[in-house]
User: Which sequence fits this backbone?
């Protein structure tokens, strides 16, 4: 019985997948479909170097009313000396039409590995901050945000 | 000319860490929105931001459409000597907006 059911769902899935495929063919310019996953975006930034959790503190409100301007603070534990400093800090999101948010380039002259900015979130999702240190290691921190009013994809009409 | 707003202390002691904030009035049009005529509104964003201290770059940032309108960044630098902090925003068309702030270091 359950096997039969599974078979049935399988066929339906196939038909649905076929339909989706036709849709993809019909709408080649739909950019959201080409969006890389969060993991692919992070890999693109690190060049495949493994990312370790820790050292980074990503501060973002857990619940935001308006996704058009969400305050984000990223702080990294680093002495910020010429030999040991943060080179770059990148922010990525999980569900916006594009995975990248921003990449900040710092250096020993930044004196403190801490940045703040305001970003857009299209829906409730996970954010991840990745820091590249001067020794070539990558550290990250992630946070979940619930968004009640979405940004980016609303219509003006 | 877009309106820019930068905040940096006017005076600082040598070696002191100063906080800098910079903002520019810009819609940061994502390219994902539809206009009233059903046409997509073309993308137009600030792509790059940089801050120079006496001609040497101390901070820069690469922006994507997920940055909010009127993009704002806060960062810090260490006060070395009296001079100019110059801020540079570059948009999709390569148009550059600048702002500056003077810092006196004792």
Assistant:
């Amino acid at each position: 019985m359950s096997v039969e059911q599974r078979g049935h769902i399988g066929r339906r899935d196939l038909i649905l997948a076929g339909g989706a495929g036709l849709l993809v063919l019909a709408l080649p310019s739909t950019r959201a479909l080409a969006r890389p996953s969060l993991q692919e975006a992070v890999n693109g930034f690190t060049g495949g170097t493994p990312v370790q959790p820790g050292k980074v503190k990503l501060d973002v409100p857990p619940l935001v009313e308006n996704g058009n301007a969400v305050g984000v603070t990223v702080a990294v534990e680093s002495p910020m000396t010429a030999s040991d400093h943060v080179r770059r800090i990148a922010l990525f999101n999980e569900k916006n039409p594009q995975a990248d948010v921003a990449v900040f380039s710092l250096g020993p002259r930044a004196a403190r590995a801490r940045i703040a900015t305001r970003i857009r979130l299209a829906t409730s999702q996970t954010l991840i901050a990745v820091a590249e240190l001067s020794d070539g290691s990558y550290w990250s921190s992630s946070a979940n945000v619930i968004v009640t009013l979405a940004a980016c994809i609303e219509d003006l009409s | 000319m877009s309106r820019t707003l930068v905040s940096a202390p006017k005076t600082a002691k040598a070696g002191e860490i100063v906080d800098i904030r910079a903002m520019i009035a810009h819609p940061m049009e994502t390219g994902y929105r539809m206009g009233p005529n059903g046409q997509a509104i073309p993308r137009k964003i600030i792509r790059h931001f940089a801050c120079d201290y006496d001609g040497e770059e101390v901070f820069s940032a690469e922006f994507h459409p997920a940055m909010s309108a009127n993009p704002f960044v806060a960062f810090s630098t260490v006060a070395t000597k009296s001079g100019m902090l110059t801020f540079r925003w570059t948009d999709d068309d390569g148009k550059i907006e600048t702002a500056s702030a003077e810092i006196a270091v004792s």
Notes: The interface with chain A takes residues 17, 30, 32-36, 38, 41, 53, 56, 58-69, 71-78 of chain B (CB under 8 Å). Chain B has a mean pLDDT of 93. DSSP finds no helices and eight strands in chain B.
